[in-house]
Amino acid sequence: MFIDTHCHLHDPKLPDTDAVVNAYLRDGVDTVINMGCCAATSIGGKLLAEKYPSVYFATGCHPSDVETFDDTEFNKIAELTSHPKCVAVGEIGLDYYWKPFDKDKQEKAFVKQIELAKESKLPICIHNRDATGDMLKILKDHKDKLVYGGVMHCYAGSVETAAELLKLGLYISFAGPLTFKNARSLLEVAAFVPCDRCLTETDSPFLAPHPLRGTVNEPKNVAITTAFLANLKGIELTEFAAILKNNAKRLFYKMK
Ligand code: NI
Asked: How many CB atoms neighbour CB 213 within 10 A?
């Protein structure tokens, strides 16, 4: 019934993939999308998708990994887009939090992968940390390339920024931080974003939702964040999970 639209199953913090997959299937999560952070993790996602029916994957270079983003790396990432279970280009974007960072290199990699998404007819999964102004500018400048849409993953911004993203046709994905005790501004965003533009995710192994905050996160915990958001929206959980599943299928249209 649930879908985790953004996780990192290949992360060393989740060494026993069989156990993680069995746990989420048991808890009602029937689909997960594994994100790529570089060519190696994107290929890792492909292998997981070929092994587990419930796993789909995205291919891409994370802004904090652009140091090694050259033509060889790009070609490996691009090659994966034609795989039947590759449903997005991601995660891509800007990250000015982890230092040092190269703004120019991040922007070039971001734009190149936005173009890849258009050419390969896939949506994008966007990562943004401390770079909202530049991120919005790039997305607006390349609006014509966002033909297959996209999602702002682990949304942590303002209502105003969310409005801009919605105007660009993008979805907003909520992760564990929505459930944190200090998440007041995010609650306003969650109330503001229409149900048909919401997604939920875990970003496993990071950002476990309350009351598991600080532990290793797993896709099964998407149920907690989804229930929290359903409650905010005043919609019964099963019905709300079905709405989110439909949203995900609309965006990640290659999913069966
Ligand atoms: Ni991520």
From this structure: 14
Distance 191 CA to ligand 1 centre (A): 24
Put simply, whether the predicted model's pTM sits higher than 0.90 gets the answer yes
How does pLDDT run across 186-229, given as a tens digit for each residue?
Answer: 999 999 999 999 999 999 999 999 999 999 999 999 999 999 99
Please tell me the distance between residue 242's alpha carbon and the centre of ligand 1 in angstroms. 23
Number of C-beta neighbours around residue 25 at 10 A:
17
CATH number at residue 220: 3.20.20.140
Residue 256, domain member (yes or no):
no
Query: Separation of 163 CA from ligand 1 center, angstroms?
Result: 22
Tell me how far apart the alpha carbons of residues 190 and 188 are, in angstroms, rounded to a whole number.
5
The beta strands (E) that lie in 45-196 are given as 55-59, 86-95, 124-129, 150-152, 171-174
